[in-house]
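Reviewers of the previous submission asked for a worked example of the structure-prediction workflow described in the proposal, so we include one complete record here. The input consisted solely of the amino acid sequence. No template or homolog information was supplied to the procedure at any stage.
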Amino acid sequence: MNINLLAEHFISISDETREALLSWSKHDDEAERFCVVDGQCVEKRAFYRLISGLHASINIHLSARYLLDDSWFQKKWGHNVSEFRQRFDTELTAGEGPKRLRNLYFLYLIELRALAKALPFFQQPSFQLYTGRPEEDQKHKELLLHILQLARPL
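From that input alone, the workflow returned the following structure tokens.
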């Protein structure tokens, strides 16, 4: 399905978003394209990049809090730099690691844009955050709204 057909099904897609979707193919390096056959759709490339970004996020979290030692008396958790390098280093991944990190950034931008679109919902007085600390809930809501206001032009 091409982007114009997709846009017909989802009326909430703005012209700006439609243009952003179409411009993704301009930013892809021909040598690094996921869809190597002409005619492959933008949506498949975007889906691949989103899944890759999720996978990269999981790998980063696993590398950051890794079980380094498991003994009878204690478990030692910490950063596992070699595991991180194995998944993201250019040489160790045959050039795939930096792409994975770019896909993580791509995922972040998509999530931020989606949250910015939901800003009117978050601005409603009835919307409450429940962090387990009632004294901080309002402060956290104000910070969330501030971040989403900054993200709105994206």
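The chain has a mean pLDDT of 83. We consider this example representative of the routine output the project will generate in years two and three.
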